[in-house]
Amino acid sequence: MNSQLNCLSRVFALAVLCSIPSALAFSPPASQISTIASSHRCNTNTRTSSIFSSTWSTATDEVDCIVIGSGIGGLSCAALLAATGRKVKVLEKHYELGGCAHEFYMDMEGRTVPSSALKSGEKRNDLFHFEAGPSLYSGLSQDRSPNPLKHIYQMIEEEPEWITYDEWGAFLPEAPEGYQLSIGAENFEKILLQYGGQSAVDDWNMLASSLRPMAGGIKGIPHAAIRGDLGILLTVALKFPLSFLNVLKYAAEFSKPFDLDKLGLKNEFLKNYLDMLAFLLQGLPADQTLTVVMAYMVEDFFRENAVMDFPKGGSGELIGALARGVTKRKGCDIELSTAVEEIIVENGRAVGVKLAKSGRKIRAKEAVISNADLYNTYKFVPEGIHQGFDEERARFVGITANPKDGSVPYCKSFMHLHLAVKAELIPDDAPPQWTVVQDWSKGIDAVGNVVVVSVGSKLDSTLAPPGYHVIHAYTAGNEPYEDWEQFEHLMDDAVARDKDEAYQAFKDERAKPIWDAIQKRAPRVVKGACVVEKVATPLTHARFLSRHRGNYGLAIAPGNSEGWTFPDVKTPIEGYYRCGDSTTSGIGVPAVASSGAVCANAIMSVWDQLELNSKIKMP
């Protein structure tokens, strides 16, 4: 029975991907930018550091739940548990909150300014705000949405203020001069017609008619309602009976890989385009993506009044709202620059953690939750402590934790450019974001082949000093870590990295496609013309974010021949849980938010969950 319930819950969880699809459906220009204030909005003049001034923060060494890591998944889980009255402590190794989605600040001299150095409520207009991770969001500004992160904000009663916009740019092999258009399903067909011909439109309509019926059930059930036990009958089946039956009807199809050929698609432009969307969503091409994910994506193209969302104050405000959901609760707090060395296991149960530097021990009455990546989640528990956990560890990471030696496959890593430039270098009519694809024939995941460029300060001018812009541009999960292994010895030595000519030359080579992508729309943004120029590599991700081999989650394709499946939120050790991109939901903002909710649900009672779920507003 438990295995059947876990399988059913995975069907729901694997459908959680609603952030990017509508961002990449284009239509003729009609750009509008507006601001939507949430009823639980934050003060966007208040930097993230202020969340630790809660009256109720505590330094106790015994709590109900400990969460290791402050990524979106970890903070979502922590905030939901805190909302049930539990005492929750979040421990973050980095000096900034947010994990892969954190924001960081630099001054005009290119020096990092930690948020802890800013006074509570202080607003400084001389800082550049940079995103370390995602830049694209949708389904968050509207009051009723299927986006899991929106549901979490509703349940914890904290939320950023949203800026909405509808303009996007793209440079594709069929459109080397680029186009700058608005999003929307109806107008997407105009792009298909222009670049793919009538057969692209016909194939698209055929695909939509096949997949849209499947999406009805998935989009009608909040993913925060998912449980891995019989409680799912109360949280899902009884509350959303029609959608539940729809999911059961199509469950077998949902779990199959998305096979474009079997679906009868022949138009190459549409096939390539869907490949790109699938890759941007979860780091895998379309034929390695679940049908349920693609059904969800196709349905999202038909959403009325589609807009993109951006948090006022920058991406750090996504994290700040989640963090306030923790620190505003009595007995709950967050500790930064606090690394965990080991999970304490007694009599087969996780009962606390031991910190790395001080050796301080913090006990957890109910649960320890890891929001670290899969490798470090295993590493926290010494071998020989628990046989079942050791067996699972051996299966997933093997002896070397290297995919070439048989470990679980990882998504490729990223290259990032963080630039601060004078505003005059970016044309006034440039969109806030654009995507560049060099060559379909190389493969969607070829090195440097897909680049996303985001100029957040075009949406919110407070992200840069007056007269300046910030640019965050990155290769979308197509940077193989294997190519960087030769420089691992430099990872912890900044001086040696700066002096190593081979490393610097290789970094420049891999950053060139990103510079080229930026210059597609802002040709005057060149090396040496920027106030701040920072290049992040897979080694940066491994070092700063504690991501094994710089990974962004597991690359587990449906129906893979090796038999890989995503680990469940429950580990074999009683009381030890996990959430984030290494569990059932996969990668992406909605997916990791969903994983946090599913993990919290595995800990709280069904009655606590039903009370929280009652605050969700579905479309």
Features:
619 residues, alpha+beta, seven-stranded mixed sheet, 20 strands
What does this protein structure show overall?
The radius of gyration is 23 Å and the shape is globular. The chain is built from 17 helices and 20 strands. The protein has helices at 2-13, 72-83, 148-156, 185-196, 198-219, 232-237, 241-254, 268-282, 291-301, 316-327, 374-379, 387-397, 494-499, 501-521, 538-544, 589-603, 606-613; strands at 26-27, 33-36, 62-68, 88-91, 103-106, 128-131, 162-165, 167-172, 175-183, 308-311, 333-335, 340-346, 349-355, 361-370, 416-422, 433-437, 450-454, 468-475, 532-536, 576-578. The strands form four sheets. An eight-stranded mixed beta sheet has the order 1-9-8-16-17-18-15-19, with helices on both faces. Strands 3, 4, 11, 12, 13, 14 and 20 form a seven-stranded mixed beta sheet that branches. By secondary structure, it is α+β, with helices and mostly antiparallel strands.
